[in-house]
Amino acid sequence: MRFMLFLLALMAPVPALALSCLAPSVERSFAQFDAAEEVYIVVHGRLTFDPDQLPEGMTQDPLPPNETLVPARLKGLSLTHSGFTLPFDQELTLEVQCAGPWCGGAQTGEDVLAYLRKDDGAYFLAISPCGGSVFGTPRPAMLKKVQRCLAGAKCEGR
Description:
Blueprint: H1 2-11, H2 26-35, E1 39-49, E2 67-80, E3 83-99, E4 102-103, E5 110-119, E6 122-127, E7 134-136, H3 140-150
Parallel strand pairs: 3-6
Antiparallel strand pairs: 1-2, 1-5, 2-3, 3-4, 5-6, 5-7
Helix pairs in contact: 2-3
Protein name: Lipoprotein
Keywords: Signal
Organism: Sulfitobacter noctilucicola
């Protein structure tokens, strides 16, 4: 009898698991990182790393590690009050975070707008499954929005 109940329980419908995220915006991200206690800088440039070091996430590993550290490099310009004008060419660490089978990701060689945390002279880019700290192939309008945020304009995401 217990075995039959066990089999019935296995066949019962279960809710589908899904990750629910608010769509990221450069304005909302700016406000979030500007309010953080840590020091953040905004950089527009080319991100490179070994993609084989990223966690697989949904593709093969149903339980990837909570965080994977990946060495990377970002070369471009950081944001100043004059715009994206300060040369930036630094090694950094991608902190790729997973929530169950969902993992953050990025494309190597891609042009990005990134919010980097500076900690003891080193740079870190936290990449979560919901996004918000790195935007691939940013449009000129996105870059202008971030510049307006730094200049003190109302900075809210949709």
